[in-house]
């Protein structure tokens, strides 16, 4: 059997070749750089902007999006005395104040194209706002949608379970299937598209996976049965849909690899970051890969005690990771670990940034409006902002 790293790099060669316009066969796998960890930048600090600190109540944030320096939104649910209350948090003053907006159903994905127009993927379908999130209208009844992504007020995509990839050209009123999503020979019941990213140059990448049930698959989560989990390391089928013309035409490719691509962040000039999440009790909880112009790709981050949950590539080339310190213990433990934010300017040396000591999570998501402040939200009800001391 090939090594896990080789399987992942073989899949990413196809991706980098497409984005660079180079033939995949001409590119050989690149040996990964060893990611060093450097000291935090003393002038910067991730400070708490919001914390849901109410007795007998918990807030789990699913997604965070900033449409400008001032305007941001976070979707989640409040659990209180057995009740579940879907909510949206809104700020219009750079995070100094946050307002609770009740929602009719849980929503897991947010995307805005300006301070007014945004979309949510929820339990029963896709919702649209024209007033910055104060009110929402369901524009499509669609179940199983995991992510929504728009590049204008009219043009966008929705991806999710059962091999679903949909596109719209009228702001979400009408949705049609993307034919390339159905090309891989996989069963819809076991095929999910869960990540999408785009760039200003017209590149769009959608990543998915197919994981049919396997004989002997355990009934319990990894953290309850870690010994058995380590005995079932098998690759899954990764699916990549790629477009170089804002979704006018698509190409589909598949590759067998360990883990699942759960996040894609595209930058300028054919650069990008891919987060690979290992679902089982793997030797590493996650890996981050970068791809570069010319078709080169390499692994740029992997640590046994750090589970990366989101990646972000800024226009200036800086890479950011939101992660959780697992302490070298079970990678999918339900117990929150210390929140970590890492930054690299050369994709080889990583700064562990200074984060408020109260921040803990099992999962976190990054957000930033172009050229504005950086933000992170946790599944423990906290939103933090990168600020100068």
Number of helices: 2
Rounded mean pLDDT is 86
Class derived from helix and strand content: mainly beta
Distance between the termini: 50 Å
Determine Rg (CA atoms, Å): 20 Å
Percentage of residues in DSSP E strands:
over 45%
Percent helix range: under 10%
State the total count of DSSP E strands.
30
Inertia-based shape: globular
Main sheet? Answer: 6 strands, mixed
What low-confidence regions span 5 or more consecutive residues with pLDDT below 50? 1-10, 17-40
What's the SSE blueprint?
Layout: H1 4-20, E1 36-38, E2 44-51, E3 57-66, E4 72-80, E5 83-91, E6 99-102, E7 107-112, E8 118-122, E9 125-129, E10 137-141, E11 145-150, E12 156-160, E13 164-168, E14 176-177, E15 191-198, E16 204-210, H2 226-229, E17 236-243, E18 251-257, E19 260-266, E20 272-277, E21 286-291, E22 297-301, E23 306-313, E24 319-325, E25 337-344, E26 349-352, E27 360-361, E28 364-368, E29 374-378, E30 382-388
Parallel strand pairs: 1-26
Antiparallel strand pairs: 2-30, 3-4, 4-5, 5-6, 7-8, 8-9, 9-10, 11-12, 12-13, 13-14, 15-16, 16-17, 17-18, 19-20, 20-21, 21-22, 23-24, 24-25, 25-26, 25-27, 28-29, 29-30
Fold and architecture overview:
The chain is 5% helix and 47% strand. The protein is globular. The longest helix has 17 residues, at 4-20. The protein starts with a helix and ends with a strand. Strands 1, 23, 24, 25, 26 and 27 form a six-stranded mixed beta sheet that branches. By secondary structure, the protein is mostly beta strands. It contains two helices and 30 strands. The chain has helices spanning 4-20, 226-229; strands at residues 36-38, 44-51, 57-66, 72-80, 83-91, 99-102, 107-112, 118-122, 125-129, 137-141, 145-150, 156-160, 164-168, 176-177, 191-198, 204-210, 236-243, 251-257, 260-266, 272-277, 286-291, 297-301, 306-313, 319-325, 337-344, 349-352, 360-361, 364-368, 374-378, 382-388.
């Amino acid at each position: 059997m090939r090594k896990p790293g080789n399987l992942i790099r073989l899949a990413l060669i196809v991706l980098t070749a497409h984005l660079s316009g180079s033939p995949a066969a001409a590119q050989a796998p690149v040996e990964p750089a060893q990611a060093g960890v450097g000291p935090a930048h003393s002038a910067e600090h991730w400070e708490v902007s919001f914390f849901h600190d109410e007795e007998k109540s918990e807030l789990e944030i699913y997604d965070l999006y900033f449409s400008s320096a001032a305007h941001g939104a976070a979707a989640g649910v409040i659990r209180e005395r057995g009740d579940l209350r879907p909510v949206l948090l809104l700020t219009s003053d750079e995070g100094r104040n946050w307002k609770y907006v009740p929602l009719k159903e849980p929503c897991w994905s947010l995307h805005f194209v300006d301070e007014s127009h945004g979309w949510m993927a929820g339990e029963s379908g896709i919702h649209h706002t024209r007033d910055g999130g104060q009110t929402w209208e369901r524009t499509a009844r669609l179940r199983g949608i995991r992510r929504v992504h728009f590049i204008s007020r009219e043009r966008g995509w929705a991806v999710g379970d059962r091999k679903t990839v949909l596109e719209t050209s009228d702001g979400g009123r009408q949705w049609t299937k993307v034919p390339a999503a159905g090309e891989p020979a996989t069963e819809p019941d076991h095929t999910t598209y869960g990540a999408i990213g785009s760039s200003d140059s017209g590149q769009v990448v959608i990543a998915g996976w197919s994981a049919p049930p396997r004989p002997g698959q355990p009934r319990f989560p990894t953290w309850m049965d870690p010994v058995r989990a380590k005995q079932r390391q098998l690759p899954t089928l990764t699916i990549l849909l790629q477009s170089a013309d804002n979704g006018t035409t698509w190409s589909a490719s598949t590759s067998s690899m360990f883990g699942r691509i759960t996040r894609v962040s595209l930058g300028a000039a054919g650069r990008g970051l891919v987060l690979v999440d290992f679902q089982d009790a793997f030797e590493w909880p996650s890996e981050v890969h970068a791809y570069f112009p010319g078709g080169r790709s390499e692994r740029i981050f992997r640590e046994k005690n750090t589970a990366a949950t989101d990646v972000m590539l800024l226009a200036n080339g800086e890479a950011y990771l939101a992660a959780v310190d697992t302490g070298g213990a079970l990678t999918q433990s339900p117990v929150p670990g210390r929140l970590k934010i890492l930054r690299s300017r050369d994709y080889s040396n990583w700064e562990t940034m200074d984060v408020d000591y109260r921040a803990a999570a099992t999962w976190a998501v990054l957000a930033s409006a172009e050229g504005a402040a950086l933000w992170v939200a946790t599944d423990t009800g906290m939103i933090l902002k990168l600020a100068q001391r």
